[in-house]
């Protein structure tokens, strides 16, 4: 049997290599250990590099840019009728934290959706409609491209992919928290809240209107004009024809002056007070801050409580929406608790000036 004369040498070399690795990693903290530490995404060097690029947070080490956060904040403020320029530094920081919550949820949901794609579908029509709606928020294509670039999105293809992902997430959540509301629960809610389901007193009326608010016609002149219209009515002229001929209310004139069914809450206070005080069907003159009205009350309906049969469908939808919202919120909270160890927030980045 031939003996391998090089085996002892190789064994010594392997031993020395292992000894070097041990000493480098665990004793002397040498260059190999330093390289490994630097390659760790949790290392100070790695964190410094990503925060320098404007990374505000990470989910499973995937970056969320400050510009993405600020776009989410801007969208949130827009819905509230506000702008970022109105915020103090502390308010901006809190809005960014709130926006991050939503972005974290979206990241986690993307992971869930990825594992359930076979059970989720988004129609091409719905996708196209959502993309059009997103684009409509921007003044022109150039502004849209700048907005996509600010969020780190690579053009329209990524926009479509992200919109699709959003729709898939919504479909996944709808499937996960889909609810059937028991009939007994709908009935119970109705009985407990029936005092809120009252229809107010309503009436249907028509009018001929002459404006005085602009100052083009005097108060006396407008009243005199309607007195003459009332005389024409007494002579047998048709109210609808007179409204089309004389009324200055463009919205009702083409309907013969018909104002439809109205409750007090829908009307200016001075008009409601005079209108609901009228008795009988004889056309009457009514003065408001806008001008003079020749009004005829056509029908009245007293206030009444809506029956369960009338309101059942509305209640079912409302209760389902409420339970769905609660279910989604609970699901996302549980998801966050399970995956929370994989979240990182870089607060110093969130305290930077507005990025858009």
Automatic annotation (TrEMBL):
Classification via InterPro entries: PPIase_dom_sf (IPR046357), PPIase_PpiC (IPR000297), PPIase_PpiC_CS (IPR023058), PrsA_foldase (IPR050245), Trigger_fact/SurA_dom_sf (IPR027304)
Residues annotated as transmembrane: 12-32
PpiC domain segment(s): 200-299
Domain of life, per lineage: Bacteria
Coiled coil segments of this chain: none
UniProt-recorded Gene Ontology molecular function terms: peptidyl-prolyl cis-trans isomerase activity
The entry's keywords: Isomerase, Membrane, Rotamase, Transmembrane, Transmembrane helix
Keyword check for Ubl conjugation: no
Keyword DNA damage: no
PANTHER family attached to this UniProt entry: PEPTIDYL-PROLYL CIS-TRANS ISOMERASE HP_0175-RELATED, PEPTIDYLPROLYL ISOMERASE
Listed name of the protein: Peptidylprolyl isomerase
């Amino acid at each position: 049997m031939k003996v391998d004369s090089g085996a002892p040498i190789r064994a010594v070399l392997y031993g020395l290599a292992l000894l070097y690795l041990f000493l480098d990693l665990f004793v002397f903290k040498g260059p190999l250990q330093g390289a490994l530490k630097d390659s760790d995404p949790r290392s100070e060097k790695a964190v410094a590099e990503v925060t320098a690029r404007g990374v505000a947070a990470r989910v499973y080490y995937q970056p969320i840019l400050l510009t993405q956060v600020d776009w989410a904040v801007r969208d949130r403020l827009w819905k509230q009728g506000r702008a970022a320029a109105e915020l103090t530094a502390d308010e901006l920081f809190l809005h960014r934290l709130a926006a991050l919550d939503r972005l974290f949820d979206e990241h986690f949901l993307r992971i869930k959706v990825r594992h359930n794609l076979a059970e989720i579908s988004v129609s091409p029509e719905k996708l196209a409609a959502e993309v059009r709606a997103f684009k409509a928020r921007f003044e022109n294509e150039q502004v849209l491209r700048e907005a996509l670039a600010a969020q780190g999105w690579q053009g329209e293809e990524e926009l479509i992919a992200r919109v699709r992902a959003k729709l898939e997430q919504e479909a996944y959540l709808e499937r996960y928290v889909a609810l059937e509301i028991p009939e007994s629960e709908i009935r119970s809610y109705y009985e407990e809240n029936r005092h809120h389901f009252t229809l107010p007193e309503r009436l249907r009326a028509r009018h001929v209107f002459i404006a005085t608010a602009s100052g083009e016609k005097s108060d006396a002149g407008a009243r005199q004009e309607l007195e003459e219209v009332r005389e024409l009515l007494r002579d047998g002229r048709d109210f609808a024809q007179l409204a089309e001929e004389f009324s200055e209310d463009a919205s009702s004139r083409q309907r013969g002056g018909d104002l439809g069914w109205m409750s007090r809450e829908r009307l200016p206070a001075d008009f409601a007070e005079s209108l609901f005080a009228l008795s009988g069907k004889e056309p009457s003159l009514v003065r408001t801050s806008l001008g003079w009205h020749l009004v005829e009350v056509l029908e009245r309906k007293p206030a009444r409580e809506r029956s369960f049969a009338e309101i059942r469908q509305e209640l079912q939808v409302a209760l389902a929406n409420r339970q769905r919202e609660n279910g989604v919120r609970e699901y996302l909270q549980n998801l966050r608790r399970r995956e929370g160890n994989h979240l990182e927030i870089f607060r110093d980045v969130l305290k930077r000036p507005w990025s858009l």
